Amino acid sequence: MLDVRIExxxxxxITVNDCARASRAIESRLDADSAVDARYVLExxxxxxxxxxxxxxxxxxxxxxxxxxxxxxxxxxxAIGSKDVRIAGVEGDAGEEIIVVEDTAGETHRVPLAAVKxxxxxxxxxx
Length: 127
Description:
With 127 residues, the protein is of the alpha+beta class. It has two helices and seven strands. The protein is elongated.
């Protein structure tokens, strides 16, 4: 089973046609290179509306959006713990980035990116 997530370089939404085109390209490469067993299942999709936030570029790209994050309390503000937040921005130099978030009470927290254990965008189903 090969599960591939794709994104467009222009930031536009992923369409079914994008997934089909990527699937055909990946399949032809896998078949030509014999990189995997002849029998495999390939799934191509977008990261989704609750996509994970994995690096500083993700945090910058989704500034202003709601997210759910869990932090290592030993490395960050213990008050943030595991919370729903709004991404307010990114500060600091490369390798020492600080994620600035606002919790649901409107309080601002500064969390070292290295202290973030898990994070994903949060979709508000009530909109």
